[in-house]
Amino acid sequence: MASKVYFTKELTPEAVVKMYDVLGVKLPGKVAVKLHSGEAGNQNFLGPIWVKPLVKHLNATVVECNTAYPGERDTSEKHLKLLKDHGWSTTFKVDLLDEKGPDAVLPIPHGVHLHEDYVGKDLLNYDSLLIFSHFKGHPMGGYGGALKQLSIGCASSFGKLHIHSAGSDKPDEIWTADHDSFLESMAEAASAVVAHFKGKIAYVSVMKNMSVDCDCCSVAEDPCLQDIGILSSLDPIALDQACLDLVMASKDPGKAHFMERVNSRHGIHTIERAVELGYGSREYQLIEVK
């Protein structure tokens, strides 16, 4: 059955709240809003202003995890400083999920490459999750959206290495795993987070400042596409598929550069593996919200 994906051309912080509300769900209990804090020097990430009304609306905590690559977010000390410098911890209550170990381990019963997902242990302190994604390109995944936030985003620093290596325990294979195996591992890790929250997840993706590079990059290309809008869904697979379809349907000539990044990294394969795991559908009904 086709999943519902909602879409608006309105690009405001208030529209982010509206796009959550149209989903018709109320996330229960203690709510975490998972987002990208933005690497130091990155000019494209979406800052606190974009989620301020939503976080207030949900009475939520902003959550993040440390990275696995060198930068200003690869240790708790540096990441906490960046969270302050970028205005996150001065605007919201922020929880760096893997600030202190040990990691929480979520099972992946149907994984081929991964059988466990290592997430920041504080994730277990929350009853429900709002995945706020800045849709853009990505140097390794081809694109970054809801599935990447569920997988790499919620993974601890070690968990990110585990995904990138496609489950290998060999240090020299961390960044050199077979590429499709890495993409499949992202889909598998995402399935563990989806299963953990048992339906208590909602997804909002903002198609703005769309570079071929991720917000992880301290030196990123400028956006190559005109802004498109905000989308929301209860299905992360349908949401990512809809975002890609909107790029492909765009009349902006910059889409060729964007889609070259997606296709050269076989980005759609993450979606293909996610469908095989059964936690969503590529079939969707796009509902425009005025």
Walk me through the structure.
The protein is of the alpha/beta class. It is built from 10 helices and 12 strands. The protein has one domain (about 5-290): Rossmann fold. It has helices spanning about 15-20, 50-60, 75-85, 90, 145-155, 155-165, 180-195, 235-250, 255-265, 270-275, and strands at about 5-10, 30-35, 60-65, 95, 105, 115-120, 130-135, 135-140, 140-145, 200-205, 230-235, 285-290. Strand 5 (about 105) and strand 6 (about 115-120) form a beta hairpin. The longest helix has 19 residues, at about 180-195.
**Helix/strand/pairing category:** alpha/beta
Q: Quickly count the helices.
A: 10
SSE ordering: EHEHEHHEEEEEEHHHEEHHHE
Using the alpha-carbon principal axes, give the shape: globular
Largest sheet: 8 strands, mixed
How much strand?
15-25%
User: What average pLDDT do the residues reach?
Assistant: 97
Measured distance between first and last alpha carbons: 25 Å
Record the strand order, biggest sheet. 4-3-2-7-10-11-1-12
The number of distinct structural domains comes to: 1
**Model regions low in confidence, pLDDT < 50 over at least 5 residues:** none
Percent of residues in helices comes to: 25-40%
How is the CATH topology named?
A: Rossmann fold
Computed CA radius of gyration, to the nearest angstrom: 17 Å
Number of strands: 12
Indicate the CATH class: Alpha Beta
